[in-house]
Amino acid sequence: MTYEYVYYNYLMGGKKLTLRDEFCPLYSLEKLYDTSIRSMGFELYDLSDFNQWKAELRKKLIELLGGFPERSPLEPQVIELKEFDNYTRKKVVFESALYIDVPVYVLIPKDINGKIRGVVALYGHGYGKNDVVGL
């Protein structure tokens, strides 16, 4: 595939510039992809092949990640409890691995009879978990 990477250099009075393939951002990535050997490549012929491949892939991923730490007891502790009109908010801390404590909020709706589904709200940048629970 040939790429033509065109851009306008406004510092040079808006001059239109075209770069060779080798200078285009996707060129090198596509070349690496086209020439790489996929050691975990897979072609499906029957379900047993897939299950075997899936088990091998899982083992390889865990190896590449460096393995998983030993499981530790979660030992959750409620460190804050706050009542609201429609729900209760609990701040809980649990141990996800040795020396790693994780703070989470658990929001429990009021006036609900029977089982209901839970929602896990993962947060990213900004104020993190505080944004998700409205703090």
Average pLDDT confidence is 80
Portion in helices: 25-40%
Q: Classify the secondary structure makeup into a structural class.
A: alpha+beta
How many β-strand runs? 5
Intertermini distance = 51 Å
Description:
With 135 residues, this protein is an alpha+beta fold. 25% of the residues lie in helices and 28% in strands. It is built from three helices and five strands. The strands form two sheets. The protein has a three-stranded antiparallel β-sheet with strand order 3-4-5, with no helix packed on it. A two-stranded antiparallel ribbon has the order 1-2. The mean pLDDT is 80.
Chain-wise SSE layout:
Elements: E1 5-9, E2 15-19, H1 25-35, H2 47-65, E3 77-83, E4 87-97, E5 100-109, H3 129-132
Antiparallel strand pairs: 1-2, 3-4, 4-5
Which features would summarize this protein structure in a list?
3-stranded antiparallel β-sheet; 3 helices; alpha+beta; 5 strands; 135 residues
Overview in brief:
This protein is an alpha+beta fold.
